[in-house]
Design brief:
signal, mainly alpha, Oprl, 93 residues, Lipoprotein
Length: 93
Amino acid sequence: MRKLTIAGFALAAALTAGCATTDDAAMSEATATANSAEQTAENAMNTANSAASSARSAKQTADQALAAAKAAQKSADEANERAKRMLEQASKK
């Protein structure tokens, strides 16, 4: 009976150790998965920040192009007005 009890404790200890090993492996796998997800999220954040920076740069370039286009339009309008006045003066002569 005593040998059977000792064998039972040994079996219980072996099973518990096996479960602990499985739990450790599962915990290690979960930690690795969490670390991978964290790295993926960090990469996504870096990509988003880079895209936002590029968008700001593109907007600044577009704003500069719009300002240049407005200045060119103003110059063209002024030239047209001068040409119109010159034509009117020439037709009066």
